[in-house]
Amino acid sequence: MDVTPTAVRQSSPAEDEIFAALASPVRREVLRLLRERGPQSVQELASCFSMARPSFSEHLRVLREAGLVSERRDGRRRLYRLEPVPLVRVRDWLDPYERFWRDRLSALRHLLDDTETTETETTDETGAGGRPHDSGSGPRTDQDEERP
Asked: How far apart are CA 20 and CA 15, in angstroms?
C-alpha cells in the first residue's frame, strides 16, 4: 500500500544523495572541518576521528558522490575540499520552513507584547496585586493604625 501523498514534490536523485550524505554526524563534521580549516588530506581529516581508515574512506566517498566535497591529487596525497554549491539545494529546501517558523515566532512575539501591554495597563489602573491605589501619602506604619 502506497502512503505517499499525491501532492508530494519529487526530489531529484542528486538532492536525495545530498540529504543522505548530511544524515551522518561524521560526514557533517567532515564538512565543518573543511569549512573551517580549508582543504585537507585524508590523513589530516581521518586523524580527527576514531574509526578504521576504510570506514572513514567510505564517508568521504559518500560526500564526494553527493558533490559536497571534491578530491584533488597532490603527489601521493589526496586533498579534499568543501564544495558549497550543493548546499544551496539544502538552503532552498529549508527556506520555506525558516519563513514558516519566523512568521510563527513573530506572531507569538506580538501576542506576548499585547498581553504584556494589557497586564501593564491593568496594573497601572489597579496597582500591584489588582487592588485600587491607596491615595495616602506613603506606606502605613503601626502608629497610623487607629486606636480603640
From this structure: 9
In degrees, rounded to 5, the angle at the alpha carbon of residue 36 between the alpha carbons of residues 34 and 37 is 65
CA atoms of 63 and 24, how far apart (whole Å): 10
User: Three-class SS of residue 38?
Assistant: coil
Contact call for residues 21 and 66 (beta carbons, < 8 A): yes
Q: Are 100 and 89 in contact (CB under 8 A)?
A: no
For residue range 28-70, what is the model confidence (pLDDT) as tens digits? Answer: 999 999 999 999 999 999 999 999 999 999 999 999 999 999 9
pTM: 0.62
Task: List the alpha helices (DSSP H) in 12-147.
Answer: 13-22, 25-37, 42-46, 53-65, 87-126
